[in-house]
Design goal:
The chain is mainly α. 63% of the residues lie in helices and 0% in strands.
């Protein structure tokens, strides 16, 4: 069962907003578990669950990696057969560098960029990437973060700097480099704004 935006835009938006609320509730559970169990709790099963929550009733293949080609504007994500290995490397990057890179937004920036670059799901990649990014922001701070408006909401409210930072990381990658510094700086500003907004 799914609703298409073209058939009923109002219902589609309503379902999508409720999904985001459910995804956030699930994300809070994931953070609580992660704080107890450690960074190894960040795995594909967590992402599958977050993606399934994000796209319930608007996509039929939520909660599993894609098995078909997908196109995103001018970006052509990797062939679907490469997705499982790329995601294994993605998790390995986070796990192996967790105690090495202590910058508060660098690994969250990597997760945000790399998930968007791989585009492992049929639908809901951005929503799932922003949730994963926020999970790591909380994990790095060792707590559920206070603030009236969380980082993923702040990204949604002003997407242009987000897109520009993603494109900067893409350009670096295309040139044979790995650089998410612009995205890390962007997230740092959003994180400071969220914490400053805490009651």
């Amino acid at each position: 069962m799914s609703v298409r935006k073209a058939d009923n835009p109002e219902l589609f938006e309503n379902v999508q907003e409720k999904n985001l609320l459910r995804q956030y509730d699930l994300l809070l559970n994931c953070v609580e578990i992660g704080l107890e169990k450690g960074i190894e709790s960040f795995d594909k099963y967590m992402l599958w669950a977050l993606n399934a929550a994000a796209v319930a009733n608007i996509a039929q293949f939520g909660g599993r990696f894609r098995e078909e080609p997908i196109y995103v504007g001018n970006h052509i994500p990797p062939h679907y057969q490469k997705v499982p290995e790329l995601m294994d490397r993605f998790f390995s990057m986070v796990h192996e560098n967790w105690t090495i890179i202590d910058h508060p937004t660098w690994l969250p920036a990597y997760v945000l960029w790399r998930m968007n670059w791989i585009h492992p799901f049929v639908e809901g990649n951005g929503r799932t990437a922003r949730a994963a990014c926020y999970y790591l922001l909380c994990m790095r701070q060792g707590r559920l973060l206070p603030g009236k408006k969380i980082v993923p909401e702040r990204i949604r409210d002003n997407r242009q700097p987000y897109y520009e930072a993603l494109r900067a990381a893409d350009r670096a990658w295309d040139d044979g480099h790995f650089d998410v510094s612009q995205l890390a700086a962007y997230l740092s500003d959003l994180l400071k704004a969220q914490l400053a907004d805490a009651p």
